[in-house]
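the two lines:
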Amino acid sequence: ASKRFFTDFLQDLPTPGTGGPTFDTTIGTNITGLVGKTVKLTCRVKNLGNRTVSWVRHRDIHLLTVGRYTYTSDQRFEAMHSPHAEDWTLRIRYAQRKDSGIYECQISTTPPIGHSVYLNIVEPVTDIIGGPELHINRGSTINLTCIVKFAPEPPPTVIWSHNREIINFDSPRGGISLVTEKGVLTTSRLLVQKAITQDSGLYTCTPSNANPTSVRVHIVDGEHPAAMHTGNNGNSTASQPPVLLPLVLLTCSTLMLLQLVASCSTLVPATPPGCRTVQQASTFAEEKAMGQRSNRNCQDLQELEESQDLRRRGVERSAVPGT
Amino acid sequence: SRFTNRRIMFLIYMTNLVTHVMMDEPRFAQPIPNVTVAVGRDANLPCVVEHLGGYKVAWIHIDRQMILTIHRHVISRIPRYSITYTDNTWLLHVNQAHQDDRGYYMCQVNTNPMISQVGYLQVVVPPNILDIESTPSSVAVRENQNINMTCRADGFPAPKIIWRREDGEEIAVEKKKKVLVYDADVLPLTKVSRNEMGAYLCIATNGVPPSVSKRIILDVEFSPMIWVPNQLVGAPSGTDVTIDCHTEAHPKAIIYWVYNSVMVLPSKKYKTDYTENSYRAHMKLTIRNLQYGDFGNYRCISKNSLGETEGSIRVYEIPLPSTPSKQVTHTTVESRENNIIPSSRNDTTKSLQTDVGYAMKNDLYPGSASSSSSGGSSSAASSSSSMQTSALPGGVAGNSLSSMGSKGSLAIGKSTFYTERPPNEYAASSVAGLLLHRALLFGSGIYLTLL
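prediction for all of em together
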């Protein structure tokens, strides 16, 4: 009760009888995201009035968004808000580990009231025990165990493939079984009975919400160690072809660079100040998407200006009856 | 697909590189200075950014975690903040600074990665003495008691407090060490004496003008004390006489005179004067046209809420000078006793010896009077009275002369009828002899003049 009185006393209320802005605390304050995925931090505000909602990153006190205007130049951040809705969302695309930390949704009251959200960006780790190379005696059982760690939730499915072909448990081969245990630590075990030469090759474990990992299995006879050397030589041979590709790419990039230089020299003198310069840069970097986003940023800024004007008019209107 | 990603990243990198080279990145030309402002005044924080281009400048108050401005828009709803932009300088105005405005301010440019710099705004507050937590403006203490006078002040930075006396006298603190200025919140005074009564100033300073001071009046209370400079005052009848007493008292005492158990009031007969200086008073009583009924014991009394004391002064009569009519009488006596000149010499010798004895008797009488007066006054007065008596041999002589004069008259009357007397009569005859001696000399002078 005292807090409410304190709030009412300090704020200039746009509508008599209406309380000040408040946060909907039912929304979670701990968000976990995956590396490389899109994360949304939502702040639900009631009775906002004509105030502004901003997102600030606590790590370096970096201002991210103000209202619907995205201030930061880091294109991965974007403000999302629908008119007449109470949700003010900060969207982070291609989340990175470094994005972990405290983000505060702040309302421009005096003093400012904030709602902090802790964002944790995790990167699931997939590992096969015994990898990356396994040597199995002919006739023995191939036992592969795949472990998924640091996943925000257990993966719905874990798919095994052999030489890029999904293992089919109905194949004529027979003798193949799979046991998967889901939890904080998800374990998936692949068993292949009575290994034969054709069973050798690349086995890949692919969780549905994590990166895949592989292990190479060699079926060996106890009496023929020379086969190992053959495999190594094969690896070294396989690495030969990619050497040429970087050279080709470098040449192509240089040619395209020359074209860009010619284009920029023509356009730069005529570039007006403000948003258009950013727009120009965006056009060079990406064709349509970034251009549109830049336009939206400009429009949002103009809307901010309009809201400021509206605020002033509101002040004038409130002043007239008093006079 | 991996190669495709690599190509895209390379293109983006090269594009960004070209963009950065062709359009300079924003940079801060100057650091934000640390600004100091007094509460209620205005302050400006400049942020100088070169090559801003299309980027935006934002101001943030870090201590409040409050977004203040973005570009030219004031986001904060505190109307005391405003922003102006001229010649690469983004100037943040803080009008009528509050103490809450104190802290670090960040100027931020939305490059990727973001660049920022920080400056500190120091809001200082002039000192202000807290009356509620300080000693009241007037305080009373009994003499020889201890007292701590306290003075508290707020302000930023925290003020330093010093004590000094308004009249410039030294202050006795810490086992009676004397200092002109005492540096502390609490001024400890031990076994306060009446000399320490007066006005004390507590002065608070913290480098931010104006300094403030508080005046505390210290009252030292004690019972009245009286000193009587002259406890025996002699004067002839018909003249005016003034007696006085010195008294000290605080709180202020009522002082008055009493004679024969009656309070003396100003009238045609009596005039009273009072001279006051701080806790001291000088009281005078002037008795006009002394008569027989005015001689006796006068008491000066001083009384206040803590006690009372009195002093005693005895007023006695001394004879007037001789008149022409008496001279004629002396001539008559001389003519009658010229015939017995040879015997007058012997009489003179005897009378001198007797005179010495009489003087001794007379000396005892004033002593008894002194003891009587001391009974009614304080020990100090008594001591003073005793010294007074021993220090006034002239007074004793005066008394002797007065007594001799009186009885001499009677002796003359008796000598006309009797020639031989017992020892008492010897005393009388000795007095007559002395007078005859003087008359003889006087007569000889006249005789020679006639010749």
